[in-house]
């Protein structure tokens, strides 16, 4: 079978709502495909019991349909669903690359971004591309109406996932319809700082640029223990901490030498709130 691995992603990064995304070196989904008359899907791995295998309800089924590429598809989940690490996008990205190759469709990675985003529409109700773009292209990505801008970078990160669940639909439900101009001004400044930090591979600038007063405060309220975990990560050396995507995962940026301490502090802080968690010491990849 043809096998493709696609990384987890974090999108947004506090600032850059529905615009910024990063690919993480770990974890990742693995998708295996072979030609078939009709698409069938089997799912194993992290949280597989929550993922529908009916192609009409699975992100990967939507990708197979969009590429007119029926296949027997096996998904091995490394990225836990509803964790804030773009789980559905990883599967969709891996399937898009695999099926494109299996059927010699000839699409570039950039051309596969809207194809993989079709799968996202099934999960969140909107075909947004901020998770599938970094999963397909790697690095740091900026998605706008003008297309995708990609930058290779390797900023160190810790992604800490509590064993609690926040659905993307719920997390989008708390996003305000309007924002005060002063908050927009501050968010634009932070987003620009973060983007420059990514291009310079500078954890200090990236961390500073994660601040956001529009979307993030609404979402942290949905994550038990968030304030304690944030404070512990900063004390352990994180230069910035925010909600990973729609949550409940929490993303910290730091120097590579601080990753172990930051990961331990975040796990301990969740533990103090009687919440089990798992931390990935990773980097943008
Ligand atoms: N940017 C989206 C959000 C992605 O934050 O709602 C969710 O995976």
Structural topology:
Blueprint: E1 2-10, E2 20-35, E3 40-45, H1 59-66, E4 71-77, H2 87-102, H3 109-124, H4 132-137, E5 140-144, E6 147-151, E7 156-162, H5 168-173, H6 181-200, H7 203-208, H8 216-220, H9 226-235, E8 240-243, E9 250-253, H10 259-272, E10 277-283
Parallel strand pairs: 3-4
Antiparallel strand pairs: 1-2, 2-4, 2-5, 5-6, 7-9, 7-10, 8-9
Bound molecules: L-homoserine.
Overall average residue pLDDT: 95
Straight-line distance between termini: 26 Å
| Shape assignment | globular
Class from secondary-structure proportions: alpha+beta
What is the total tally of β strands? 10
Keywords:
single chain; six-stranded mixed beta sheet; four-stranded antiparallel beta sheet; alpha+beta; 10 strands; 38% helix; binds L-homoserine; 285 residues
Verbal overview:
The protein has ten helices and ten strands. The protein has 285 residues and is an alpha+beta fold. Strands 1, 2, 3, 4, 5 and 6 form a six-stranded mixed beta sheet that branches. It has a four-stranded antiparallel beta sheet with strand order 8-9-7-10. A hairpin with a 6-residue loop joins strand 8 and strand 9. Helix 1 packs across helix 3, helix 2 crosses helix 3 and helix 9 runs antiparallel to helix 10. The longest helix has 20 residues. Bound molecules: L-homoserine.
